[in-house]
Write a structure and sequence with these properties.
654 residues, 38 strands, 14% helix
């Protein structure tokens, strides 16, 4: 089985422990500060409690539209109105009125999807976008926010910044668009410079967005002066956090991290430290409550907690779960997911609703991953919640599509929203099988190696030799998960006492999945595979491979079945094309280690080989690719070099 995998062992996964939650302690203001007003300690406590109860903010439910987008740069997204009517929005249509001179700045639609502006929300007849765009004129990035009207697709510039103050969130709240941006960090002083918030409101008379004053500037300054790094919560399930104004208005506070753990700051600027949170990660909260997961990095199991800010108590709502994801909140209800593997590689997700007011914790529904459908996080892809309804992307009969469920009664019966997202074309040509394997230490039972592999099964209507191809693929899958190699690997001879104390530190995982299927003409079948190896550290290592089959014989083919030249000629061609690719790039898009074209050429020549299998076949040519670390850093990913069949073989087809 051809497979490229460099197994670097990344070491140094930090173990985190939880110290326990105690009562909240006030952080007192420095002498001379006027923003913070502490309550008079001599006031009658009962009167204080009554005042707090009267002033307690209320979370608002909304009858506004719901925006459904698989991710922020999706080409197609949908708007669901309060009556359940759905509108499909195409970015190309929204960009039709943008002038040619503005298209590179306001990237509503771009040739490459990943270059498109991120859509953050829809409200009052506008779509709102945010972006960061490199400017050759300034030598830095421009951060900007703009809107496009839904009716006539007119562009409305709203906010722009050239000081590298990256945008934390854009949130349309109570008729205004709030933009929170980070001022950066002073590394010499070891402190945050804080955040600022601006807001804009549409003015129909001037047909523009006018800037308005915000309420909480002094409070945000106070947080920065205390080296408090503020954290926005998330409503609805979007990755885009709530604005600080929304948090103050609806929750009564904003969460932040400090050098001593977490704290909350209220509308008056009073900061209260949350004891025992030095080793906890909190990113999700609602009225009077924080939500977090405490992980045991020895067992790799987590416990999910709800922390009551008023009395300082922590309540466990889920324990011994393999993974946890906080999904969103709707009014007083918070949604989260716990994941587990009954067999390695097949994730089993359970989605819960926790009601802050009643304390009820309800399992709404469950979902399992489907072999061949790596595009979907089971039960939570695109998760969006609003007004008692949950929206997710589901898989059915080869299609990814939006579905919804009314969960106001604590149940989730999903229905088709008839919003098509993507066709998983693997299933147009056949099915996908899988194999899973776990190897445990024979002495202590600690799992040391887990492997998951898939194989594509071609429908016999496409080839009389489908059974030959399928048997070859199944054999490769079974070989991948075979455990014979473990017997001679000294890594697994480590001490059982170490296994028991830190089982995840000694565990290696390796996945190998079907990524795509295609035909070249009516003669060849290609099957794309993708892999990921992890053995500890900051990240694992990806791998990829493509099988090429002759549909008439069932035989697997390689480049030497087509290319008759010498290896040095092949290396020269790849190096020439690599240099040509580099010269075609914008300066700020260089994925290579170096910016010297001659060095890139020589490195490409040294690293290109006929028999290394780093080749994908397409209709018009091959893609020769360099894995991470070969020609560029890990963050650059694979570097793909296209070579036409005319250049490679002297003809226009394979």
């Amino acid at each position: 089985m051809k497979r490229k995998l460099i197994q670097y062992l990344f070491i140094g996964l930090a173990a985190l422990t939880f110290a326990g939650c105690g009562n909240i302690a006030d952080i007192q203001p420095d002498e001379g500060e006027t923003v913070i007003e502490e309550d008079d300690e001599d006031d009658d406590e009962e009167d204080d409690e009554e005042d707090d109860e009267d002033e307690k903010p209320e979370e608002k439910s909304s009858d506004a539209n719901v925006l459904l987008s698989r991710d922020a740069t999706s080409n197609i997204f949908f708007v669901v109105d309060p009556d359940g009517n759905v509108s499909e929005i195409n970015r190309r249509d929204l960009a039709e009125n943008i002038s040619a001179s503005d298209k590179d700045l306001y990237r509503v639609s771009a040739e490459e999807q990943y270059l498109q502006s991120g859509i953050v929300c829809e409200a009052d007849g506008f779509f709102f976008f945010k972006d960061s765009n490199y400017s050759e004129a300034t030598g830095g990035y421009i951060y900007l926010v703009y809107a496009v009207s839904e009716d006539d697709h007119k562009l409305y510039p709203i906010w722009e910044d050239t000081e590298n103050h990256y945008i934390e969130t854009c949130d349309y709240y109570d008729g205004r668009l709030y933009i929170d941006y980070n001022l950066g960090y002073d590394y010499d002083e070891g402190r945050t410079l804080g955040v600022e918030e601006v807001c804009f409101e549409y003015d129909s008379k001037s047909d523009s967005f006018a800037e308005k004053e915000t309420e909480y500037g002094p409070v945000l300054e106070t947080a920065a002066s205390k080296n408090m790094r503020l954290i926005g919560s998330r409503s609805g399930g979007w990755d885009n956090p709530d604005s600080y104004t929304r948090s103050f208005k609806e929750y009564g506070y904003v969460l932040g991290s400090t050098d001593d753990g977490y704290a909350v700051i209220n509308e008056k600027g009073v900061i209260k430290h949350i004891d025992g949170t030095e080793d906890v990660y909190i990113s999700f909260y609602g009225t009077d409550h924080l939500f977090y997961a405490e992980s045991d990095y020895g067992t790799n199991l987590s416990t999910v907690y709800v922390y009551d800010i008023a009395d300082g108590s922590a309540k466990s709502i889920a324990s011994d779960v393999e993974s946890t994801t906080f999904l969103g909140k709707d009014g007083s209800k918070m949604y989260y997911l716990t994941g587990s593997y009954e067999e390695y590689g097949i994730s089993h997700n359970r989605i819960y609703e926790y009601d802050i007011e009643s304390g009820d914790n309800t399992l709404l529904y469950e979902a399992k991953s489907i072999p061949g459908v790596s595009q979907v996080y089971p039960g939570a892809e695109g998760f969006t919640v609003a007004d008692g309804k949950i929206y997710i992307i589901d898989f059915e009969d080869g299609d990814l599509k939006w579905v919804y469920a009314d969960v106001s009664d604590g149940k989730a019966d999903f229905k088709d929203l008839y919003c098509f997202v993507e066709r998983v074309d693997i299933f147009d040509y056949g099915t996908v099988e899988y194999a899973s394997y776990s190897y445990a230490c024979p002495d202590c039972g600690t799992v040391l190696n887990q492997r998951y592999a898939e194989c594509f099964v071609l429908d016999d209507k496409y080839s009389d030799c489908a059974d030959i191809i399928n048997e070859y693929m199944r054999t490769n899958m079974e070989t991948f998960v075979n455990d014979n190699f473990l017997e001679s690997d000294s890594y697994y001879d480590s001490a059982c006492e170490d296994h028991r104390e830190n089982p995840t530190w000694y565990r290696v995982t390796d996945d190998w999945t079907v990524a795509g299927v295609n035909f070249i003409g009516d003669k060849y079948l290609t099957v794309d595979m993708g892999g990921y190896w992890y053995g500890g550290g900051a990240h694992g290592y990806p791998s990829r491979n493509q099988y090429l089959f002759d549909l008439e014989t069932g035989e697997e083919l390689s480049i030497t079945d087509f290319y008759s030249g010498k290896e040095k000629d092949f290396k020269t061609l790849v190096a020439d094309k690599t240099k040509e690719y580099y010269l075609s790039l914008d300066e700020n898009m260089n994925p290579f280690y170096t910016s010297d074209e001659e060095t890139i050429y020589s490195d490409a020549y040294e690293n290109a080989f006929l028999d290394d299998g780093n080749i994908d076949y397409t209709e018009d040519g091959i893609i020769y690719y360099y894995p991470p670390y070969i020609m560029g850093p890990y963050a650059a990913g694979y570097i793909d070099i296209f070579i036409s069949y005319e250049e490679l073989l002297g003809r226009d087809s394979l």
